[in-house]
Amino acid sequence: MSTRKASLTDQHTKNGTSKYVLERCASINEYYDIAFKVMLLGDSAVGKTCVLVRFKDGAFLGGNFIATVGIDFRNKVVDVDNLKVKLQIWDTAGQERFRSVTHAYYRDAQALLLLYDISNKPSFDNIRAWLTEIHEYAQKDVVIMLLGNKSDMAAERVVKTEEGEKLAKEYGVPFMETSAKTGVNVELAFLAIAKELKHRATQQPNEPKFQIHDYIESQKHKSGCCGL
Ligand SMILES: Nc1nc2c(ncn2[C@@H]2O[C@H](COP(=O)(O)OP(=O)(O)OP(=O)(O)O)[C@@H](O)[C@H]2O)c(=O)[nH]1
């Protein structure tokens, strides 16, 4: 078993970021106004770590697959409407045997990115079970987004885009197809989450509500891409 994706240290569980950090905070090389916890969930090998590495470092982790052990996280600060939003993104192990470890972290997350692999039907079929688990362990108002990853693998596709869209609609969650390999829609997914969380935390009563579905659709169309 590799430790490429090492487990979270006690220090982080003890000093976890509070739900909404509104003062300007600084850690090593990293200024931010507000911080949120985001978790990546989904079956083993759907590409959670690769999506995170693509977003954080702009690179693709190809080569031999090494499964995550336990839970790990990385931070990234993004700009949203002149605010520095820090996303602390927790990468969980998809393998069943780590499930009890990851359950413990659900309740601290403000957003969950739930991934399946468009070239792996069981990973899509398991999404309903993941959503049941989320409803059991996560906060009631957690932001959920469904991602069909590996959209670059057109020849191996076994889950149609429309199937992903239909399932997402049924659960009322936003959806897009991503590729950690090409980078398609990866930044958009995290930015949409950051915007939604920032609006929820700072919204004034007279301000219109941020519409995450509309934002995603407008941005997908802007880049002329459909996630394929
Ligand atoms: N073609 C293609 N391959 C991908 C993509 N994302 C991930 N992979 C490959 O899929 C395999 C699994 O990726 P990981 O990111 O390690 O999967 P994971 O979901 O983190 O797996 P666990 O840690 O076991 O939960 C690796 O061999 C990756 O190179 C993608 O978008 N396109």
Q: Note the total helix count.
A: 8
The span between the termini is 33 Å
By CATH reckoning, the class would read Alpha Beta
Structural class, by secondary structure, is alpha/beta
Q: Average pLDDT, to the nearest integer?
A: 85
Give Rg in angstroms: 17 Å
Instruction: List the ligand species.
Output: guanosine-5'-triphosphate
Q: How many β-strands, per DSSP?
A: 8
Largest sheet: 6 strands, mixed
The percentage of residues in β strands lies in 15-25%
Q: State the share of residues found in helices, binned by percent.
A: 25-40%
Assigned CATH superfamily: P-loop containing nucleotide triphosphate hydrolases
**Order of strands, widest sheet:** 4-5-3-6-7-8
- In total, the number of domains comes to 1
CATH topology: Rossmann fold
Provide the low-confidence segments as ranges.
1-25, 224-228
- Outline type: globular
Q: Provide the CATH architecture.
A: 3-Layer(aba) Sandwich
Write the layout of secondary structure elements.
Blueprint: H1 10-14, E1 25-27, E2 30-32, E3 34-42, H2 48-57, E4 71-80, E5 83-92, H3 99-106, E6 111-117, H4 121-125, H5 127-137, E7 143-149, H6 161-171, E8 175-177, H7 186-202, H8 212-222
Parallel strand pairs: 3-5, 3-6, 6-7, 7-8
Antiparallel strand pairs: 1-2, 4-5
Helix pairs in contact: 7-8
This protein binds guanosine-5'-triphosphate.
Guanosine-5'-triphosphate is lined by residues 44-50, 61-62, 65, 67-68, 93-95, 149-150, 152-153, 179-181.
Enzyme class: hydrolase
EC number: 3.6.5.2
Family: Belongs to the small GTPase superfamily. Rab family.
